[in-house]
Structure formats: structure tokens, C-alpha cells
Write a structure and sequence with these properties.
Length: about 190
């Protein structure tokens, strides 16, 4: 990512954040690596002015939907998450050194339609990459099991979610009010 100044943040709009890991690393969609990533989420999912609402892990990147108050709370929240994640994965993979490939990419979601598209894109991203195709359940390497906006799934797991969940209108109500719920089998399309 170029190191240009990022646009100002408006707290009422959530963000879609993408984080890539370096080439040559093991997959984030391996069970032990995913447990390490979930531990990092649990420790950093809710900080002052920052909340991770949803996520999915792909082979070499993470997609997050976050709520944040301003640029500083986003930077601090992501720094906390990435520090925890790198430490946990380095321990798991018995390695040292940098793991994140570059700056995270962040895009504000300003309309209910953008939010709905981002939710479908993040939670069903493995279907797009053809790494998960089970029609009756959400991707296990995502927060989809705890998502309450599925059209055809409503059995959340017994354990507590690794994310804080949304609180603001666009992520809790707005997208669903105008665009309806998301089918489990919806395959996100590229922009």
C-alpha cells in the first residue's frame, strides 16, 4: 500500500479492512494457525473506540469488518491486533520476524448496500476462493457461525465469539432493513 495520507474517518461508518501476510508462510486456514488468530481476536477485538465485528481468514490474508471512532482508534486497534496475531503465529510456526506483508488496507462503508455487500464478501470469501463449499453451514474460518444475518442458518455455536460484534446502526440494522438477509451459498463477486 502506498504511504499516502488516509481519508478522515466518520465513526458512524464501519470499515472493511484487509491484512496480508508475507509470501511463503503456512496457511491461515489451518486449524492450529486459526486458533492462534482467534486468540489474537479475543484479546484485541474491543478496545477504546475500536471493535472487530466480523472476520474471515483466507490462506494468506484476513478480511475484517470493524467499527472505530477515528483514525487513531483504528491505528491503535489494528496495531494491538496485529502484534498479538504475529506473536501467536510466530510461536505456532516456530519462527521469528515480520509476518505482515504491508500496511493494512481500509475502506469505509457508507451505505447499507455497501455494508451488505462487504458482509457477504467477508463472511463468504472462502466460497469465492473455492476453499469452502458446504451449503448448510458458514465457513469455519470466519465469524459466520455467530452472524445473525443469514437467511438460512440460525444455530450459533455454544462458545463465545472471538469478535465483539457490531453496535452501530449500519452494521446492526441498516443493511438488513434495505437489502435483506444473506444466503449461506451467496458467492461474492469481485468489484
Amino acid at each position: 500500500m502506498p504511504h499516502s495520507t488516509r481519508a478522515p474517518i466518520k465513526p458512524r461508518f464501519p470499515s472493511h479492512v484487509t491484512v496480508r501476510i508475507r509470501d511463503g508462510m503456512p496457511s491461515l486456514r489451518e486449524a492450529r494457525a486459526h486458533r492462534a488468530v482467534e486468540r489474537a481476536f479475543r484479546g484485541a477485538c474491543e478496545r477504546e473506540g475500536f471493535r472487530i465485528a466480523h472476520y474471515s481468514a483466507q490462506r494468506n490474508h484476513l478480511h475484517l469488518i470493524v467499527e472505530r471512532d477515528d483514525r487513531r482508534s483504528l491505528a491503535n486497534g489494528m496495531r494491538s491486533l496485529l502484534t498479538r496475531m504475529v506473536r501467536a503465529l510466530n510461536r505456532e510456526w516456530r519462527r521469528k520476524g515480520a509476518l505482515v506483508a504491508d500496511r493494512f488496507h481500509e475502506r469505509q462503508l457508507t451505505t447499507p448496500r455497501e455494508v451488505r455487500h462487504a458482509l457477504a464478501y467477508v463472511l463468504n470469501n472462502a466460497r469465492k476462493h473455492r476453499t469452502f463449499a458446504h451449503p448448510d453451514r458458514p465457513d469455519p474460518y470466519s465469524s459466520g457461525s455467530w452472524f445473525d444475518g443469514w437467511r438460512d442458518y440460525d444455530a450459533p455455536p455454544a462458545e463465545s465469539p472471538p469478535v465483539a460484534g457490531p453496535r452501530r446502526w449500519l452494521l446492526t440494522t441498516g443493511w438488513r432493513k434495505f437489502w435483506g438477509t444473506i444466503p449461506l451459498t451467496e458467492v461474492p463477486r469481485r468489484r
